[in-house]
Specification:
The structure is a single chain. By secondary structure, the protein is mostly helical. It has four domains: 102 residues; 144 residues, no CATH class; 96 residues; 253 residues. It has 27 helices and two strands. It starts with a helix and ends with a helix.
């Protein structure tokens, strides 16, 4: 009994000494600015999360909580003033000013503003403070679950209890009481980053002292363990989403639950998925192999850049998120749910245009939330598909890839071959065949080098697609515009026989055949990579590819044969219109690809999207496509006038009589 008394006495004395040390530590103003910025971020996070418990509808509901908020903000203003005068590192934002933002939060609290307004202003001040010193709050290494558990039992159990319910042996004598980490109202407000900051800086006016002796790795190991306590009695769901460590560290349970609901996870399954994300995922770092996790991380950094007014950086981060995170996953997403892939692309465009059109921070934040939810849906769908495919499903998907990606090139080649046949210049058809054969061979080479495709993904891939499509548009415009301008078959035959030299034929017929076919071959390789990466049977993929290729060959053969039976005038017009229509399609696709990498600006329109036809609802794609359509109309009118001018006029009556 005496031993127990002495042990508890020493523990009490040690607690008192630590409390004195914490007061001294908080009063110490000799910390580096980076540490001060993190402390300020911690205070702002605390205010944002807890102010709602002190004020409701403009009235104070807890005087003690309200007084604590005001005390914390007084300390925060002092820190912010010091930070504004401190030199900023090269990795930070030299122009960032924090003190005025913190004063605005303090004024909102004085005026008993809504918790939504206070939280928004506090988080903006937090983001600016961290950005000013280039601080990214996320663990540098995976947390250690055993280390986290041991630290909790060594340092936290006396106050918080063995299960984190705030019922430790010292809890009865403490005011305020230790936090109950299993209570919904508390746990929903916590993220590992906030817990780690609390471990580092403590909480003024409470028994929660700072544990400066712990390393960052130890603090995060302890923080992740604390967040897992709430879920100890819930069986983790298998095959959980591959959220990255940075995302798990900076988001609360409430944040993640909203994302899961938006991703279509059934309500009754959310608790099990959360248990998996808190008890297993942080120690596996599933996001390391997920490009969508990379996208999510960059989107969150873009959100921080928007909060500090750095929209140029936010735009660059969004482009990187799309190119490095979403583009590599797009073939798998499109194969699983083409509508979802189109929706993600549309949301990306809306975010890009919102940044350039000076949307408000709140509107952009809402758009970002929607974007992240769509990514969560995509991740869930891709994860389900990765469990394996049946033979028939794989064969159908494989055939669909070949047909979807190859039909434009097949129609173009068929039209060119038919026109050359009609014109009686079959010797020039070899240039058309040489073009698509070269494209197929290059596509096979691309497949053989597919292990290197990571190096040409993202921006390079979009640049290849965009430049190739626009080059095909230019060559196809040259060929098909000539057809439209020379409306009669005889004129086209004369033009092709007499004016198109072998060299010019090689540049036009070979060029357009090659460019159109290789663009589709390049896309096909990427889609097949995604298909085979989803545990699809290779034999089924081969059967589907062969079936799709056979259908394309039949299409080319049928179109070519049609030229033998259709009236030359009709076949000529249909083929010329088809070629020109494909030029319009390629133009839209090329501009859209260059918009994705940020080379061409993006101004969305409230219109429909048919990506396979090159129809994208942006001002820039519509301008080039409408210009081509306008040129076609002009060619038609000019050709008609020329034809009318060539008709011999009837002799006058007097001349006839004479």
């Amino acid at each position: 009994m005496l031993r127990t008394f002495l042990r508890r006495g020493w523990a009490t004395l040690l607690g008192a000494l630590l409390l004195l040390v914490s007061v001294h530590t908080r009063a110490d103003q000799g910390d580096p600015p980076e540490v001060e910025a993190q402390r300020l971020g911690h205070l702002m996070n605390y205010v944002a999360a807890d102010y709602g418990g002190a004020v409701k509808d403009g009235a104070v509901t807890s005087q003690a909580e309200y007084d604590e908020q005001k005390s914390l903000l007084k300390e925060a203003v002092s820190i912010a003033e010091r930070l504004d005068n401190a030199p900023k590192p090269a990795t930070g934002n030299a122009n960032a000013k924090v003190a005025d933002l913190v004063r605005a939060v303090a004024a909102a609290v004085d005026n008993k503003a809504s918790d939504t307004d206070v939280a928004a202003n506090a988080m903006k001040a937090r983001s600016v403070a961290l950005a000013a010193f280039g601080i990214i709050e996320a663990p540098k290494e995976m947390p250690n679950p055993l280390r986290g558990k041991n630290l909790f039992h060594e340092l936290c159990v006396d106050c918080h209890g063995p299960a984190g319910q705030g019922d430790g042996p010292k809890a009865k004598g403490l005011d305020p009481k230790p936090a109950n980490y299993t209570a919904d109202d508390m746990a929903d407000r916590l993220s590992p980053t906030r817990v780690a900051a609390t471990i580092r800086f403590g909480v003024t006016g409470t028994a929660m002292v700072p544990f400066n002796q712990l390393s960052d790795e130890d603090r995060y190991s302890l923080a992740f363990y604390v967040l897992s306590l709430r879920h100890q009695n819930t069986e983790p769901a298998p095959n959980g989403p591959a959220y990255g460590l940075s995302y798990l560290a900076t988001h609360t349970d409430a944040d993640i639950a909203r994302d899961l609901a938006g991703a279509g996870v059934p309500k009754e399954r959310v608790a099990a998925v959360l248990s998996d994300l808190r008890r297993r995922a942080p120690y596996e770092d599933r996001g390391a192999g997920s490009s969508l996790a990379i996208a999510r991380g960059k989107i969150e950094r873009a959100r921080s850049a928007i909060a500090i007014g750095d929209r140029a950086s936010a735009r660059a981060l969004l482009i990187d998120a799309y190119l490095e995170g979403i583009e590599p996953a797009e073939p798998g997403i499109r194969a699983a749910d083409s509508a979802l892939a189109a929706n993600i692309e549309e949301r990306y465009g809306a975010l890009r245009s919102g940044l350039e059109a000076s949307k408000s921070d709140a509107e952009l934040s809402a758009d970002l939330d929607g974007f992240v939810r769509e990514l969560a849906r995509a991740e869930a769908i891709v994860a389900d598909r990765s469990k394996g495919r049946s033979f028939s499903a794989t064969a159908i998907s494989s055939a669909g890839i070949v047909l979807r990606e190859g039909v434009e090139a097949a129609l173009l080649i068929a039209a060119l071959l038919g026109l050359a046949k009609q014109a009686g210049v079959e010797e020039k058809r070899r240039f058309i065949h040489a073009g698509w054969i070269a494209a197929v061979l290059l596509g096979l080479l691309t497949w053989l080098l597919s292990a290197k495709l990571v190096a040409i993904s993202g921006a390079r891939r979009e640049m290849i697609e965009g430049v190739t499509a626009l080059a095909a548009t230019a060559v196809l415009f040259y060929v098909s515009y000539s057809l439209l301008a020379k409306r009669e078959v005889a004129r086209w035959m004369k033009f092709l026989k007499e004016q198109v030299t072998p060299t010019r034929a090689a540049l036009s017929l070979f060029g357009v055949s090659f460019l159109a076919a290789y663009r589709e071959a390049f896309e096909t390789v990427l889609f097949y990579q995604a298909l085979l990466a989803s545990n699809a049977p290779a034999g089924a993929a081969l059967v589907g590819a062969a079936a799709g290729a056979l259908v394309l060959l039949v299409l080319v053969f049928a179109y070519s044969r049609a030229g033998r039976f259709a009236p030359p005038q009709v076949f000529f017009r249909v083929s010329s219109y088809l070629l020109y229509a494909l030029a319009v399609v390629f133009a839209g696709q090329g501009v859209a690809a260059l918009q994705t990498v940020g080379v061409v600006p993006m101004h969305p329109l409230g219109a429909f999207r048919v990506a396979s036809l090159g129809i994208h609802p942006t001002v820039e794609t519509w301008i080039i496509q409408l210009a081509l359509i306008g040129a076609a109309v002009a060619a038609y009118v000019i050709g008609k006038k020329q034809a009318a001018a060539d008709i011999p006029k009837a002799p006058k009556a007097a001349e006839t009589a004479g």
